[in-house]
């Protein structure tokens, strides 16, 4: 019988192993990349990878990120899994199970969540995860550009990254139905990869990730210390007339009249040891790993 492969934990200070991890990611996940995110110093102690290495090369991996979830306003310490996969040349050897088991053992009995693509929906229930429906939200709203566009922010600037971290940690959560606090390093990963819409400054204490496609304003996330009138800012977030607003989170705080706009079928949520709201909800897209 073959021995179980050794699993190596990769942490915030393991620069050499981080480089091997970064080489692994595009082999499994295509356009996704961690290099820029690592260069920004966003790999903190809250993020760990559990990898099988072969001759210094990562061939299988499961990563976990510590999360401060909010479920109906109640804070829950949890872990979110991500970067789960195996390079094509090593599939069929059970390596994905080995790294999954190592990550789950490290998380202990804490609640967990993950987002999966449609190709692997049968995989995660083997580890005790249950699927949960995620809802999209939208509102009919006509608006026209007015005034200068809100200034854009660039996370290449370390001061901007620090500001995003402060707003995420100290500000109000974008949703309390099913959301999180302090996930700036998850958000910055999306931004580093170009997966998020532009980040704009509405004031010292309010930043927003939003952009226009066609006649729709898409709002990915809001980082703010206090509630504000979102509708009043819409004309400064658009460069053309719009008729609809779509939200990347449950907008019960920001746009209570928003309606369900179908099920989110781009990323499927699985949870373990976590009871969610019975009300329709969508976990913030920039908090997903």
From TrEMBL:
Residue span(s) of domain N-acetyltransferase: 8-156
InterPro entries per UniProt: Acyl_CoA_acyltransferase, GNAT_dom
Annotated protein name in UniProt: GNAT family N-acetyltransferase
Molecular function as annotated in GO: acyltransferase activity, transferring groups other than amino-acyl groups
Keywords of the record: Transferase
SUPFAM superfamilies: Acyl-CoA N-acyltransferases (Nat)
Entry-linked PROSITE patterns: GNAT
